[in-house]
Amino acid sequence: MVSPAELPTSEVRDLPKDGLALLDVREDDEWAAGHAPAALHIPLGELPSRVGELDKLPEDQPVYVICRSGGRSARAAAWLNATGWDAVNVAGGMGAWAREGRHMVAENPDATPEVL
């Protein structure tokens, strides 16, 4: 488990490092409200059927898994580790990400912060 502050970042403050394998397992409305740049979005309930999409992520580092607060991402990381992936839960999720002032992008900027 790592906190958002422990994730590798680029030279640009608070942006994820290029090639960081970040998987967001929140629901569509949560994703639309705001997410980390370059994260791959697969809701937790769809992960088993869409796990092949992880092949798009860099193979030379762990898959960092994030959700709203860390619960769903912990389950996803455990499942991924059990199926042969190197996965790490991001503690505190997007709530911690936002509290740390890290960069986010949103498809629905009018969404309420509760869905982060």
Automatic annotation (TrEMBL):
It comes from Amycolatopsis panacis. It holds the Pfam family Rhodanese. This is Rhodanese-like domain-containing protein. PANTHER family: FAD-DEPENDENT OXIDOREDUCTASE, SULFURTRANSFERASE YTWF-RELATED. Residues 16-106 form the Rhodanese domain. The lineage of its organism: Bacteria, Bacillati, Actinomycetota, Actinomycetes, Pseudonocardiales. InterPro entries: GlpE_sulfurtransferase, Rhodanese-like_dom, Rhodanese-like_dom_sf.
